[in-house]
Amino acid sequence: MLGSGLLTSAAWAQAPAPAARPAAATGKITGKIFEKPGQPAAYANIIVLGTKQGTQTDESGAFSIPGVPVGSVQISVQQVGFDKVVKEVQVNARTDQQR
To answer: Where are the beta strands (DSSP E) in 4-92?
Structure first.
């Protein structure tokens, strides 16, 4: 009986894995945030709404978020002392020809 149970377990372990799903196309959101013209918004939080993706601007207000799903997405920008701003942006797939 014990041998039969081990053989069954081995057969289950060798079952073929489900076919892999193709990876979804992604792109990158980059930009620069300003408090007012000529004054960068240093260390503002940028979040892609509906995802767990986000980043913080650097001291010059610049940011980059790679791996964002292709299509129309909303980003939330918030800095201490300022109201939150939500903008809709279009993310395009990156190809080898784009650099």
So the answer is: 26-32, 34-36, 39-40, 45-48, 54-56, 62-69, 71-78, 85-91
